[in-house]
Design brief:
Helices cover about 35% and strands about 15% of the residues. It has about 150 residues and is α+β, with helices and mostly antiparallel strands. It has a four-stranded antiparallel β-sheet with strand order 2-1-3-4, sandwiched between helices. Strand 3 and strand 4 form a beta hairpin. It is rod-shaped, with a radius of gyration of 43 Å. The chain starts with a helix and ends in a 16-residue tail after the last helix.
């Protein structure tokens, strides 16, 4: 049977007029009670919508229409229905950081300045070594000796 015929049969059973329904929508709920009928559109999972549908089930009959299929919601299948339709998707509160380096063209890589070194390598090591070696050639001296450098002596 088509969804329109099933909803019409339930409305006749309760003695209520059939609500205006846009059958081009893929998902919606039809609540039928002894005093009124309602059409509830389904957009996204939400606990509030689940509570509204649950209260409607207490008053009467709730039909779930999805892609041309009609399902009667009962208390026996309510637990599976709640888990499938009304539990909001959990968002990851601590997503993994994106450590992938962005793409850079070769031209940019070549034009980019080189990073300065973090620690000085051995700049001046050779000069210091030569100076120490020369001082050691003088041999042991007693006291301080000062030499005057300059023209003629």
């Amino acid at each position: 049977m088509k969804p329109q015929q099933i909803i019409d049969n339930y409305c006749r059973l309760y003695g209520i007029t059939v609500p205006e329904i846009d059958y081009s929508e893929t998902q919606f709920f039809v609540t039928i009670a002894s005093d009124r009928t309602e059409v509830i559109r389904y957009r996204k999972p939400s606990a509030l919508l689940g509570r509204i549908v649950c209260e409607a089930m207490k008053r009467g009959v709730v039909l779930y229409v999805h892609n041309g299929w009609v399902k009667l919601l009962t208390w026996e299948n309510w637990k599976q229905t709640w888990a499938k339709l009304f539990v909001p998707k959990k968002r990851d509160t601590q997503p993994e950081p994106n450590t992938v380096r962005p793409y850079r063209s070769e031209i940019f890589e070549q034009a980019q300045q080189e990073r300065p070194r973090k620690k000085p390598q051995k700049h001046g090591f050779r000069r210091t070594f030569n100076a120490n070696f020369a001082m050691n050639l003088y041999g042991p001296t007693r006291g301080i000796r000062a030499e005057v450098l300059g023209q003629g002596a």
